[in-house]
């Protein structure tokens, strides 16, 4: 489908509400006056040059991801030079799973250092703790050579201008071809790395791979006689949820309240909607009250794990993997992670639910956030910019290459065993390889799971099914200083109210007054800044 420079990707309500902190991270890091839409639009983005050596079994499009039924029998050795410079390189990142063994106890990490030609020293924190750690390190000025910068970081233009390298001359236009696997990242993803009229980082692309819908345990539903569920409306979906709940047996349908999914049934915007140059937030769109009432109804019926309102993301993932819950609202990235963390054995299976209309027809699907993070290079690093870009390029080698095989699976015999041409991870491999390399740089996700061709087939099928119904975030590629500073605080108030409403502690009627407060407290100003940025960018 046609894609404009702004409407390409978006975060969705849950992602948009995340901010690192509600206050400036660094003294003097107020947004730079040069961070204008006109200046940013004038930046020549890296030229996209698709790496064509690997042919997918399930070809994708500019939206649907490529799928592979097996790993190529003869992986391409794509990079001959050692990217490092012999000196230690420091990196700070989040980790989606458990913190892995330290380098002295981790043979994957040790082999990685040999292949990089530099010791990679990684400071890690869990997904739940990373934002706080990031803010603390920024405030203290204690920065690594390579920094995982969350997209929701307040006042990110000023922060990057003060602390990060300007990479424009090294990556703009055809200059990126020196780093062919960075050039293999589609141009649209680079728009999230442009601030102050310059390129300030390398994107870690997500987009379709981060698109979220209900993941469900096929084995658990099959045990109830439910195969290939396809509810035609909310009530049929609700009936399935009730069927999958047995509270006395410590089993519930859901890990959390699927309000975002219900909003998609109702066709609500993906964060921000633009029509004729006018922006509308998801919070003020018609249908919110219906979504909240339906969510409240689900909580009252007991189909949601009652601990969800106090649990962290890691606990919810454990409920799904352990069979305490049959549904979780998450992405294609999480789909693969669940297979990686599988504790249920061979019977374990996952699939994804489409979105019906709330009453009938088809619902909409919110396109996933464009970027997991921006990878910035410390302006004060002792490494050359070329070295750090070569490391990022090595991390972005795509599926089917020897570099990807090692990066994702480790060393044969210890971290994986071969099943035909497929590298099947061992328990040691799962534990040792999870050190966060994908957050330095990465290729776009390939739909694949070792030894299970049905996984990419299911993933490719649902992506094809929803591709024409994707809804994009109109604010992507536009910068609002007020949104950067206040979004977390403003949306946090609405999220708190939403939680109170769905638990029956507040009335649905309290939503509309809260949205008016949201608008008067900064929402209207954000709208105006987005509209101005949209106009300055040429309205496209």
At a glance:
36% of the residues lie in helices and 13% in strands. With 540 residues, it is α/β, with parallel strands linked by helices. Strand 4 (194-195) and strand 5 (198-199) form a beta hairpin.
The chain-level mean pLDDT equals 91
The fourth-level CATH homologous superfamily of the largest domain is Periplasmic binding protein-like II
Number of helices: 20
Question: Quick one: CATH class of the largest domain?
Answer: Alpha Beta
Largest beta sheet: strand ordering: 2-1-3-14-6
Question: What distinguishing features does this structure have?
Answer:
single chain; 540 residues; alpha/beta; D-Maltodextrin-Binding Protein, domain 2; 5-stranded mixed sheet; disordered N terminus; transport; Bact_solute-bd_prot1; SBP; TAT_signal; Extracellular solute-binding protein
């Amino acid at each position: 489908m046609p894609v404009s420079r702004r409407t390409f990707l978006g975060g969705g309500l849950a992602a948009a509400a995340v901010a690192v902190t509600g206050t400036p991270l660094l003294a003097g890091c107020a947004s730079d006056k040069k961070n204008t839409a006109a200046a940013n639009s004038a930046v020549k983005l890296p030229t996209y040059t698709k790496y064509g050596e690997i042919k997918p079994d399930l070809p994708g499009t500019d939206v649907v991801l490529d799928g592979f039924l097996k790993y190529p029998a003869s992986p391409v050795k794509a990079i001959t030079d050692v990217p490092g410079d012999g000196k230690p390189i420091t990196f700070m990142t989040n980790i989606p799973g458990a913190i892995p063994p330290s380098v002295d106890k981790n043979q994957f990490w040790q082999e990685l250092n040999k292949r990089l030609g530099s010791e990679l020293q990684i400071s890690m924190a869990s997904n739940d703790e990373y934002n706080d750690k990031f803010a603390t390190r920024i405030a203290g000025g204690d920065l690594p050579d390579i920094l995982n910068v969350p997209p929701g970081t307040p006042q990110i233009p000023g922060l990057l201008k003060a602390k990060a390298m300007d990479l424009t001359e090294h990556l703009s236009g055809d200059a990126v071809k020196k780093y062919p696997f960075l050039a293999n990242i589609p141009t649209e993803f680079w728009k999230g790395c442009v601030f102050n009229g310059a390129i300030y980082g390398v994107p870690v692309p997500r987009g379709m791979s981060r698109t979220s819908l209900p993941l469900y345990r096929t084995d658990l539903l099959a045990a109830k006689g439910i195969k290939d569920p396809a509810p035609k409306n909310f009530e049929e979906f609700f009936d399935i949820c009730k069927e999958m709940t047995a509270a006395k047996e410590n089993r519930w349908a859901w890990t959390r309240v699927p309000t975002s999914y219900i909003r998609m049934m109702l066709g609500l915007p993906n964060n921000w909607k633009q029509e004729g140059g006018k922006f509308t937030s998801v919070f003020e769109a018609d249908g919110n009250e219906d979504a909240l009432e339906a969510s409240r109804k689900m909580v009252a019926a007991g189909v949601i794990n009652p601990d969800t309102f106090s649990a962290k993301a890691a606990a919810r993932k454990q409920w799904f993997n352990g069979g305490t819950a049959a549904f979780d609202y998450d992405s294609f990235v999480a789909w693969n992670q669940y297979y990686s963390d599988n504790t249920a054995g061979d019977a374990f299976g996952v699939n994804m639910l489409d979105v019906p209309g709330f009453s009938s027809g088809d619902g909409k699907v919110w396109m996933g956030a464009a970027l997991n993070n921006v990878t910035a290079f410390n302006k004060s690093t002792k490494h050359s910019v070329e070295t750090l870009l070569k490391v990022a390029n090595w991390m972005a080698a795509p599926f089917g290459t020897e570099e990807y095989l090692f990066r994702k699976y480790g060393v044969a015999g210890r971290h994986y065993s071969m099943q035909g041409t497929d590298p099947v991870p061992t328990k040691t491999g799962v534990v040792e390889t999870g050190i966060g390399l994908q957050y330095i740089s990465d290729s776009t996700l390939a739909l694949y799971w070792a030894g299970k061709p049905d996984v990419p087939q299911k993933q490719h099928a649902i992506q094809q099914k929803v591709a024409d119904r994707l809804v994009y975030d109109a604010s992507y590629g536009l910068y609002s200083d007020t949104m950067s500073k206040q979004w977390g605080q403003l949306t946090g108030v609405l999220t708190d109210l939403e939680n109170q409403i769905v638990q029956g502690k507040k009335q649905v009627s309290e939503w509309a007054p809260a949205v008016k407060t949201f608008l008067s407290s900064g929402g209207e100003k954000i709208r105006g800044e987005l509209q101005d940025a949209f106009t300055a960018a040429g309205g496209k």
